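Example record used in the benchmark description.
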Amino acid sequence: MLNKALLSIDRPLGVAVSGGSDSTALLSLMAQAKGSDAIRAVTVDHGLRAAAKEEAAQVAQLCASLSISHDILSLNLEDGADLQARARAGRYSTLCDWAQRTGVAAVALGHTKDDVAETFLICLARGSGVDGLAAMPATFERSGVRFLRPLLGADRFELQTYLRTQSLSWSEDPSNKDPRFTRVQMRQAQPFLDDLGLTPQRLSQTADWMRAASEVLEMAADTWIAQNAWGDHGDAVFNFKALQTAPLETAARVLSRALCNISGNPYRPRFSALIALLSNNSAQTLHGCIAYHHGDTLRLTREPSAIKEDEMRWKITGPLSATHVITSLREADFTHIPDWRDTALVPRRSLLGTPVIWQNETFVAAPIAKPDPAWSASTANPLHFSK
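Model output (structure tokens):
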């Protein structure tokens, strides 16, 4: 049931445990596979149900009985629109902070074959392409934290049977039966699909094939990028003519990759929005980025107004001290670099949002707008670095 190859890591591993059957089984199986001292459990209480505190306490009791360290983290979400998306984003952000704070090598999640099948149906209903229909990856990174899914080869019935043999109980989250949510609707439709032969096993098998196809398409994108695109001080730059004549899937894939990496948004923009970039010669904003034409190229750069206060995209090298402050370059800051046209490393539109170093409200440096031997600023290549 457990993909032990994913767990062959010397350092302690984190396990996200909600108290449901999937994550409870994951905790028990990992304790057997690696030993209690080699794992650390964490439960996220979204603050949406009073019963969640009791469920977290039950997980704490189970962890204590297994001699496993356990933390409970609390969110303060409110019910409303996009609840599941907001809950997912908050949960991952909280897990990433916890993983970095505790120093675990990775965080294991309890996603199963049933989750793969449900996600496949949701994406199919949305008209998703190959990547959307592909099985969720067994391992991925978010905000520098590695996540593992060791149970993708197991189904929920199999895991619940295992828990009964171990005399272990689990909690049932009532939101898993709430028909407001698309995932629940797909789950409730599954018995009817079973009669048509569209079982979770068959659906997840197709999703696995889509994952294999996605990997081939990623390799094709890598080859195209090596010949027609490059990173330039945080921007992604494309040979626009080559982009327009590329296979549509490749063009959308390389644009999507760059937009996600520049903005930090792990979710891809709509296909129709990507296609619009290929047919419009005017500047556009999309996915927290600005797309504009410069000579024979299309450039993607970070949209200044979308930059968050805590965004850490740039690595600054120089004589930094506690009195230095780093901000994003604004229109008013050009008064401090009147000769920027002679020295700037990128076009003006791409300068906005690049780093500026201040000391006691005194301008010190703007490494991209005005190169300085004492200071430099670098960021990951948006075409090669994957979120």
